[in-house]
Structure formats: structure tokens, C-alpha cells
Design goal:
single chain; 270 residues; alpha+beta; nine-stranded antiparallel beta sheet; two-stranded antiparallel ribbon; 4 helices
Length: 270
């Protein structure tokens, strides 16, 4: 009499590990882009953790080391994504607008956002965001051998999840939340690999602002690593309209996720 064999469970556990990994990757991308994505991470992530945990128990019971290892990695990734999403949903937002002072200076004043909500009930991406600074100096004549300076400013605040348009002539440098395009740098302190992300190329620099240094840069990348997002770090970044901008971090608030920047933007070469 032939003994009936039990169906193998390796394929089922392997499929679970693949599903958990894919879910963790997708929801991590959603979390970076939108608030709705953060909520999706919490909901889908909890579900994925439950299935991954079940699959891990089955794999361990059947002594299947490889699927178990994949599931452990997937559980770690999903847990990290859920934690980041929960932090985003629970972290209070601080909205600041520039208010005039005697002498033309600007100072930050906490206010409650009054922008009309978008279709999803979230703040509209077109609502001006909290950037504050000392008075900017547009159209400054460049030094010898340097292009004309388009604009400079000190003490600009860039919160996490907000993006800045370095080509903008707006008083707040076109800072908005969840911008899809039209931005050059984005605050991401405590979120992902970069503390400041760049839409295009940037490079680390040192010393005083120099257009020549920016143009000659070859070590290009797409952001400032979390550990290097600190006061004193300077970098050049290429803007959407072909200009070079010199940016220096002068302060980082790890609690609120805000970075303070000094900016120096040159006109594009003719």
C-alpha cells in the first residue's frame, strides 16, 4: 500500500515571502508621496505582517530556512514602513508664515493652516507653505568671472515632506507640500535614505558660494544622506530651469524635521 504524501508547503511559504516583500516596497513608496499613502501603509502593513508572521511559523515548523529568512527580512521592512507611516500620521504639523517687521525683515509666526482642502481632504499642494527668511536679494551683480546672481537668502525653513523651487521668485521660494513636479529640493529628515532629496543632480561643496565650483562638480547624486543632513553641510544643486544653486544647511530640528538653509542662486548661462 503506497503511503500518500503530504503536499509540499515550500511553494506556499515562498509565495508569501514574495508578497510581503512587494507590499512593503509599494507602501513605502506611497508613504513618501502622500498622506493617504501613510494610512495605506498602516492598514496594508498590519495585514502583511499578519500573513508574514503566519508564513514564518509554517516555514519554521517545516524547517524551511530560506523562506523563513526571506520572511524575517520582509517583516523587518514592513515594520519599518509602518513605523515611519505612523510617525507621519501622529507627528503634529507646524505651519509658519512670514510676517513683516519694522525695517522690512521677516519673522516666523505659527498659524493654523486655512488652505482649502484638496479632493482627498488633505491640504492642497498649491497652498503656500512655511518658508521664512531674511529679506532676499534678487538680481545681484556677480563677482568677476561669475554669472549674475539671481537671488540670495538666509534662514529659509524647509519642513519634512515640503518641497522648494529654487527658480521661484515667490517670497517663500515656492515651498509646497507633496509637490509632484516643479521642485528642486525636498525636506525628508527622518524619512528614507536622504534627509534632503533632490529632483535633479546635486554635489557636496565647501567654502564660499562659487558658480565655478558648482559647474565643475562631477560627484553627483540625488540627495543628502540622513547622517550628513546637519549644520555646516553645503551643496550645489541644478534647478529645473538650468540654474546652479548653492545651498548651506545652518540648522536641523530633529524633533520637527525642519532644516534651515542659506541659499545662493545664479542665473543660467546664456
Amino acid at each position: 500500500m503506497v503511503e500518500q504524501q503530504r503536499p509540499a508547503t515550500g511553494s506556499r511559504s515562498g509565495a508569501l515571502s514574495v508578497i510581503a516583500t512587494v507590499v512593503s516596497t509599494v507602501v513605502a513608496l506611497l508613504e513618501f508621496l502622500t498622506d493617504l499613502g501613510a494610512l495605506a501603509i498602516v492598514l496594508l502593513g498590519v495585514t502583511a505582517l499578519a500573513f508574514a508572521g503566519w508564513g514564518l511559523v509554517r516555514s519554521w515548523a517545516n524547517r524551511q530556512a530560506v523562506p523563513a529568512a526571506f520572511l524575517v527580512l520582509a517583516i523587518i521592512a514592513v515594520s519599518a514602513a509602518v513605523g515611519a507611516a505612523g510617525d507621519r500620521l501622529l507627528r503634529p504639523e507646524q505651519t509658519v508664515v512670514a510676517t513683516g517687521q519694522p525695517g522690512g525683515g521677516l519673522s516666523p509666526s505659527p498659524v493654523t493652516s486655512t488652505g482649502d482642502p484638496g479632493p482627498t481632504g488633505l491640504p492642497s499642494a498649491s497652498t503656500p507653505a512655511p518658508a521664512t527668511s531674511a529679506p532676499a536679494s534678487p538680481q545681484v551683480t556677480g563677482a568677476a568671472g561669475q554669472p549674475t546672481v539671481k537671488r540670495t537668502a538666509k534662514g529659509i525653513t524647509l519642513p519634512t515632506y515640503y518641497s522648494m523651487d529654487l527658480d521661484s521668485d515667490a517670497p517663500n521660494w515656492g515651498v509646497v507640500r507633496n509637490a509632484v513636479d516643479g521642485w528642486d529640493i525636498r525636506g525628508a529628515v527622518g524619512v528614507g535614505f536622504y534627509g534632503i532629496a533632490s529632483y535633479r543632480d546635486l554635489t557636496y561643496v565647501s567654502g564660499e558660494p562659487s558658480h565655478e565650483t558648482c559647474v565643475a562638480a562631477t560627484a553627483l547624486q540625488r540627495g543628502i544622506e540622513q547622517e550628513k543632513t546637519r549644520a555646516g553641510t553645503a551643496f550645489c544643486v541644478k534647478t529645473g530651469e538650468g540654474r546652479w544653486a548653492w545651498v548651506k544647511i545652518t540648522g536641523v530640528n530633529k524633533g520637527s524635521g525642519e532644516v534651515t538653509l542659506d541659499l545662493h542662486v545664479w542665473e543660467a548661462a546664456a
